Amino acid sequence: MAGDTRMVRRGAGHSYLLDGEPCDGVTSILSAGVPKPALVGWAANTTAAYAVDRWDELADVGVAERLTRLQQARFESNKSAAVRGTAVHVLAEQLIRGDEVEVPDDVIGYVDACLDFLTDYDVAEIAVEAVVVNRGNAAGAGRYMGCVDLIAGVSSWNGLAPTSETWLVDWKTGLRGIFPEAALQLAAYSHAETLLLENGDEAPLPRVDRCVAVWLRTDGYDVFPVDAGDDTYRTFLYVQQLAAFANAPRGTYVGDALAHPEPAAAS
């Protein structure tokens, strides 16, 4: 009998079980499998800015403490953005469900932008913060789970007349907008086999007409359609293979060192 299939909450994070076994999440796959060369420059610039902004403060602490603070600077910057994004996602879920929410001052603009989107597109919830499941093939290719921000009926405009579609929506709150990995993420979600229901049962994923990333900002929002078709999904599966390679123990691909040859016997 198959084991549990569910999301496991772990503090601010989560993991997945698929039929009782650990399962990779879509965002973890993308994190490990998509090269991010721009992060090298970002990390250097963030650390340099931290040092300049706190020059006098750093001069007053010991060398070891100074090194530790500089090493952690980029993670603190990333943590702040992640906390903001998580807060906006949680509030968006509550708003869609019609709950009364208390909005912290630092995310009011993002929440207002979310409300504007929900109103402008006459959003009708189908699934909110829902877990998708893909068991893949017998070899494990395409085995993943993930959490979809929103699947909803929307009223959009095709240039001639209003039209109703089902959208798969992902909220983005980053300062630099939408990155191409969003297409891979939404392709994985939209190609999943089932949707995990609150009672633990599974249902076929609803038919999705369009995948979009909604960029929420303090000054408004923008909706970006992304290519989540079959070719993009195939690319995601390649990324999954790269992630598996990157996460594999060294011994999976590198054997033990060979013994040195014995010196040839003198004749």
Short précis:
39% of the residues lie in helices and 26% in strands. It is an alpha+beta fold and 267 residues long. The protein has a domain of 161 residues: Lambda Exonuclease, Chain A.
Structural description of this entry:
It is a single chain. This protein is 39% helix and 26% strand. By secondary structure, it is α+β, with helices and mostly antiparallel strands. The protein has a domain of 161 residues: Alpha-Beta Complex (Lambda Exonuclease, Chain A), CATH 3.90.320. The longest helix is centred in the N-terminal third of the chain and has 34 residues. The protein starts with 5 loop residues before the first strand and ends in a 20-residue tail after the last helix. The model has no long low-confidence stretch (mean pLDDT 88).
List keywords for this structure.
Lambda Exonuclease, Chain A, globular, 7-stranded mixed beta sheet, alpha+beta, 267 residues, 10 strands, 26% strand
Number of helices: 7
What is the overall shape? Answer: globular
Q: Mean of the pLDDT scores?
A: 88
Strand-and-helix sequence, N→C?
EEEHHHHHEEEHEEEEH
Oligomer type? single chain
Q: What is the gyration radius calculated from CA atoms?
A: 23 Å
Uncertain parts: none
Describe the sheet with the most strands.
7 strands, mixed
| CATH topology title of the domain at 18-35 and 104-246 | Lambda Exonuclease, Chain A
State the CATH architecture of the domain at 18-35 and 104-246: Alpha-Beta Complex
Quick one: how many beta strands?
Answer: 10
Q: Strand percentage, roughly?
A: 25-35%
Strand order of the largest sheet: 8-7-4-5-6-9-10
